[in-house]
Amino acid sequence: MYRRIALAMLVAVVAAGCGMFTQTRATMGEVPEGSGWLELTVNVKNAKVIVDGALRGMIRKADSPQLFVIPAGAHDLALEKFGYKRYAEKIAVEAGAVNTLVIDMERLPTEVVELPEGKAGSSAE
């Protein structure tokens, strides 16, 4: 068993060294020309981040800033999560800058629905 784990780790290290599993992670200085950072802080985790109708990612942790690289200019931003009111706003992203938004999504109201007498559960006639 340990041999298999060691072999898998060796293969992963060799493959990573060959560039087979390259993973790019942008830092604050690596924003593409003509783009800017959109820093979102949202009160709800797992909310979908939609820019100009395209899914750009999800909020991984509530109340923590999360960065997205967005082309500079005007955009339609939307946040969606089941059980919450859809958030939509027009935003402007400045090239080479950090554009910060703090958003509180609103929970949808829940209702208790009363079933008529005799309709609860299944009935056998």
Describe the structure.
The protein has 125 residues and is mainly β. The protein has a domain at 30-108: Sandwich (Immunoglobulin-like). It is built from one helix and seven strands; from the N terminus they run H-E-E-E-E-E-E-E. It has one helix spanning 2-17, and strands at 35-42, 48-51, 54-58, 66-71, 73-80, 87-93, 98-103. The strands form two sheets. A four-stranded antiparallel sheet has the order 3-2-5-6, with no helix packed on it. A three-stranded mixed sheet has the order 4-1-7, with no helix packed on it. Mean pLDDT is 80; it is low at 10-27.
Q: In this structure, how is the largest beta sheet organized?
A: 4 strands, antiparallel
Instruction: Find the CATH topology of the domain at 30-108.
Output: Immunoglobulin-like
Number of strands: 7
Number of helices: 1
Radius of gyration: 23 Å
pLDDT averaged residue by residue: 80
Gross geometry:
elongated
Overview features:
Immunoglobulin-like, 35% strand, 3-stranded mixed beta sheet, single chain, 4-stranded antiparallel beta sheet, 7 strands, mainly beta, elongated
Write the layout of secondary structure elements.
Layout: H1 2-17, E1 35-42, E2 48-51, E3 54-58, E4 66-71, E5 73-80, E6 87-93, E7 98-103
Parallel strand pairs: 1-7
Antiparallel strand pairs: 1-4, 2-3, 2-5, 5-6
Short recap of the structure:
With 125 residues, the protein is mainly beta. The protein has one helix at residues 2-17; strands at 35-42, 48-51, 54-58, 66-71, 73-80, 87-93, 98-103.
